[in-house]
Amino acid sequence: MPDLLVQLFGLATIASAIRAFVPLYLATLGGVFNERSGIVNIGIDGMMIFGTWFGAWGAFKWGPVAGLLLAIAAGVAAAAVHAMATITFRVDHIVSGVAINILAIGIPRFLSIVAYGQGTQSPQVEQLPKIDVPGLGEISPVALLTVVLGFGAWFVLNRTVLGLRLRSAGENPRAAESLGVRVKGMRWAGVLISGGFAGLAGGYLSIELVGLYREGMNQGRGFIALAALILGNWSPIGAAFSCLLFAWTEALTVFLRVDWINNAFIQSLPYIATLVVLALFSRRVRPPKAVGQAYEAGSPV
Amino acid sequence: MKVEEKPPPPPEPPEPEADEALVGIPWSQRIRNLGIQLLAPAISLLIAAVIGVLVILVVQQSWSDVTDVAGAMWNYGLFNRNSVAFILGRATPFIFAGLAVAIAFKAGLFNIGVEGQYAIGALTAAYVGYKVSAPTVIHLPLTILAGMAGGMLWAAIPALLKVYRGAHEVISTIMMNFVANAVLLYLLSGALKDPNQQGSIAQQQTPPIKPSAQVGSMVPFFNSIGFDFRGSAPVTWFFVLAIVAAVLYALTVRRTRFGFELRVLGTNPRAAEPSGIRTNAMIMKAMLLSGALAGLVALQDVIGIDDRMKLDYIRGYGFTGIAIALLGRNSGLGIVAAALLFSFLDRASSGIGLNTGVPKEVTTIMQGVIILTIVIAYEVVRRMTARRQLREQHDRA
Predict the structure, then answer these.
(1) Mean pLDDT in order along chain A per 10 residues (301 residues)
(2) Which domains does chain A have, with CATH numbers?
(3) DSSP state of A230
(4) Residues in B touching A283 (Cβ below 8 Å)
């Protein structure tokens, strides 16, 4: 059985898990911001897809840094649509998020045809110079940035006035408003930050991890991030651990080969893990109290 | 604090949303209500058209392309020899998918897993279709039921996870889509693979469905009433089944106790349990019905057109179904209309691809814009009418 142990916990598996951790954790961090501010964002997956497309396109045109910035901008733009629908027009959060995900199927395909002459793939793009980390091999600078962003997110949420106000908008918007917090502004901020993180996650995926855009490359990571958010109990630190778990299952799809499980099912390990996590933890966690509820200043809720 | 917290109590309770209350409303009022209801789709379609034009102008930078595209959509989309057959045929899976999403919506549930449910339904139907031997009167209904059962089975898992474990159905149904893909890959390259399949590159598929389980083409019928479709035009008698399903759906939702309880659960979940509705049982029933309808989505392709199940069966009908349910406001008639519209856009898209230099995917952008603007437009119109009602109450008081 040592062979199986190597497949499960070998250095190659762990290194691959860390690479898979980056986009998942970035998307989950974004989810922490929008949900703590009171807005559900099912559209994270779509925002990541926009990030993958615009990231690869930007990198193809002007290099990887511009690509990553463009990916963030694309995520923020999609998030602005979601924020306008849910906060300004008070459309159901899930309906709006689903609409964004559907847009993220059609628009990238159209754009690919316009930009590359074919609908499903971009040419190979230039990547950022890799950093050599002893023991793990070469990793992308974005991975280090992700760690910094994780601590930054924790600090902003728990140690700053902005974080307190943002969380109050998601816990008890009425009380927050009576203390002078601009609830809608906080929610806009939460959703836009979320879009930025999702866009960066997508940009990392296409530019840094794969080196090109391919249709369907996101493979539902945005939805796995939502499950990681639940398992991580809506905290940046908790999300780090839950994302490590999911990233590990993603690495197993590459490295685990056992003859008593068909490969088709090994490939769907991250999704099965998500279902298991939802089944085990959905009732043991405490979501932000006012998440998903529309809020209108001065109106009886 | 602009809106008054307590409007004066109205003299008689106006309830324009309940059907029973509609009986006493004069026709002029009813027509105005209908106009308001159609306002939102009209605004949404207009915005989609404007954005479509803008996209073409940005990409091609010529006005003649816009007129070319409009011409192609109109001429090819509607008046090509086979266009009507294509539109009806393609609308069939769209109607089933829209109904599947809508019945869950009615109960306040989001079934994003129609995609996986119809894949599994297609698989179970194909299995019964090629394995069982029976006369058509038994075999065909059995095959259709097998498809519904397959979809139901796949919807049962997220439903159980929601009722017993509190797992949100949006995430779990999406995950089930991915797992369905794995099941397809596993069974179609193994147990259910056609042993006589030639070549190694050909995509995996099941053996052919027996003739006793196949659904006939509607082309002979249409040609006998004056149309002139090509024999291979993809419209089958499943279209009639889709219309029947839409009518049954509308009757169930509006005229039965079950439909009433469904709507209560969807509009006010907190009031459901105290008013004697068993919430968990209703969630299970709604999801299972949704899955059963989803199981019908791909059946036209399996037992009407391809006469076998292929690996590429996850074709995006489920996501289109969400759009159709939203656009059709979860009403039976609305869903049929929306399905026909989206089917027309698909057909028009082929016309754009054949006859113009513009990428035909411009219609997918228009579909996306419709989805997003329709939800906002409905919300704006709802608020407009609510404000008007409030004003009328004030005037009366």
Answers:
(1) 78 87 96 95 96 96 96 98 92 89 88 86 92 80 94 96 94 90 94 97 96 93 93 93 94 86 88 93 86 72 41
(2) 2-281 (1.10.3470)
(3) H
(4) 165-166
